[in-house]
Amino acid sequence: MLRSPRTHSPHSQPPHTLISRQLTLISTESYFHRLPNMNSIRLRPAWCRNLAGARCSRHNTPTHCITSSRNSSSSSSAAAVSKAEANYKIIDRAADFEKKQASRPPFDNSNAPILVTKQPNPTWQYGDGVPGRDLTIPHRQIDPYAADRAMVDNYKLLISAIAPRPIGLISTRGKDGSKNLAPFSYFQVVDHDPPTFIVGFSSRPGAEKDTFRNLQETGECVINTVSEDMIEAVNAVAVDAPHGVSEWAISGLHEAPAAVVQASRVKESVFSAEAEVVDVKVLGEGKSGMSKAGVVMLKAVRFWVREDATDEGGRTVDLEKLRPIAQLGGMAYGRVKETFELPRRRWVDEVVKSERLAKMVNVREETKKD
Ligand SMILES: Cc1cc2nc3c(=O)[nH]c(=O)nc-3n(C[C@H](O)[C@H](O)[C@H](O)COP(=O)(O)O)c2cc1C
């Protein structure tokens, strides 16, 4: 299939602006001590401080990381790993993919402006709920841990239910200096003050994911955004290439130096955040032959945004330029072609405009009297 030319090549992209921000210390020790289910994890704060501390104190952005003392691959005997591999059904072989693709229209590469419409229901009133929604359809209850339920069922259910998910393309270095790049959609920004992200690493046969290991070893990374025109390269990055084959070379993505961390930025990304590890939480030590799963919390120490995609103050990223890709269920991805706006509302402004809201206050007052 012929694709229309990209609107920008990596070489002709406008430069990126570097946005620096002073961050405050987060200590997570007390948080961990409060957790009831952490008995299996021996905390080693001193070791972790060494892990991230040298770099963080150099940049005056202290980081305190806590992680498991266990080894990276918990039950990694060769036999257990090969049995785990045989049962590992996360990656869909998609045998009939080419056939399905043949009947589909081509991707619209025209970069047509994103349409801004009115909201779905402009006449919605307080208390209206979801007009027209059939609430007689029952819900099915599912026990994620039922004996006859495979974990892959939970995987398929969750990635199709919790959608769309943004993709963070994460660049790390190993402690031996090796470079790594991989996409993650168990990924989200969770706060802006301090700018904080989380990334989830799933269990897989054998050793834990390189990104997960590198984050624990070096305590830093660059998180890069994924735009529509990057998705094939990003998907290629996730191929299970033999050790030593460069994911940068496989994808053809271009490296750019970061300012604070050792890992490289992805030049094609409209926005990148250099980040340091704040916390590592091991979710499970991995079943037989499987690696441990975990979540890493990261705080940004530097932002980069492409010059043509931001305003003078570096306060926004233009959606027309970002063209973000969302991951959906199965093998599906989504794009943003249409948006609408919905202002946030304040009670004081609303209660005087809405009889229904005013009545709710009166009912509350009446109930108090009774
Ligand atoms: C779009 C996309 C999103 C992904 N999201 C995740 C994720 O959130 N968590 C995860 O463990 N693996 C995820 N993967 C799979 C990893 O990218 C893949 O296992 C990769 O090879 C890990 O690389 P590493 O071992 O170099 O870290 C995703 C793959 C793709 C293509």
UniProtKB/TrEMBL annotation:
Which residues fall in a compositionally biased region of kind Polar residues?
A: 108-123
User: Pfam families per the record?
Assistant: Flavin_Reduct
- Name of the featured protein: Putative Nitrilotriacetate monooxygenase component B
PANTHER family tied to this protein: FLAVIN REDUCTASE LIKE DOMAIN-CONTAINING PROTEIN (PTHR33798:SF5), FLAVOPROTEIN OXYGENASE (PTHR33798)
Q: Which UniProt keywords apply?
A: Flavoprotein, FMN, Monooxygenase, Oxidoreductase
Task: Enumerate the residue ranges of region (Disordered).
Answer: 100-123
Similarity comment: family membership: Belongs to the flavoredoxin family.
The record, for SMART domains, names: Flavin_Reduct (SM00903)
Superkingdom of origin organism: Eukaryota
List the Gene Ontology MF annotations in alphabetical order: FMN binding; monooxygenase activity
- Needed cofactors: FMN
Boundaries of every Flavin reductase like domain copy: 160-318
